[in-house]
């Protein structure tokens, strides 16, 4: 449901998670805020590869700067790490990124930069 700030500039949306629920709580929560120039997506909980499409759908405006706030992320899988790496490489800012996720992104980048050795040798 959208809400506006008193000045009318900030719009905030709370989108329900598409991930299965555990104990009545969604495993992923996405909150979207936009001021017209910047869109911020606050992600909370577990992010799994099945959630990537929903996150991409919230990043639909190509005319604004996008921030992904990962401060409340508790768990990710390898496909999510690769998605976050690609987002950052494409100019999307990752803020409040948990240290283990940041280190994993750096390892994925380093592995991608190394030449692949063929098994045919």
Explain what you see.
A hairpin with a 6-residue loop joins strand 1 (3-4) and strand 2 (11-15). The strands form two sheets. The protein has a six-stranded mixed beta sheet with strand order 1-2-5-6-7-8. By secondary structure, it is α/β, with parallel strands linked by helices. It has helices spanning 52-58, 78-89, 99-113; strands at residues 3-4, 11-15, 21-22, 25-26, 28-34, 38-47, 65-76, 93-95. The radius of gyration is 16 Å and the shape is globular. It has three helices and eight strands; from the N terminus they run E-E-E-E-E-E-H-E-H-E-H.
Number of continuous helical runs = 3
Bin the strand percentage. 35-45%
**Biggest pleated-sheet summary:** 6 strands, mixed
Low-confidence segments: 1-9
Strand order of the largest sheet: 1-2-5-6-7-8
- What is the tally of beta strands? 8
Radius of gyration: 16 Å
Oligomer: single chain
What would the principal axes of the Cα set say about the shape?
A: globular
**Residue share in helices?**
25-40%
- Output the structural class: alpha/beta
* pLDDT averaged over residues: 83
End-to-end Cα distance, whole Å, is 58 Å
The H/E string reads: EEEEEEHEHEH
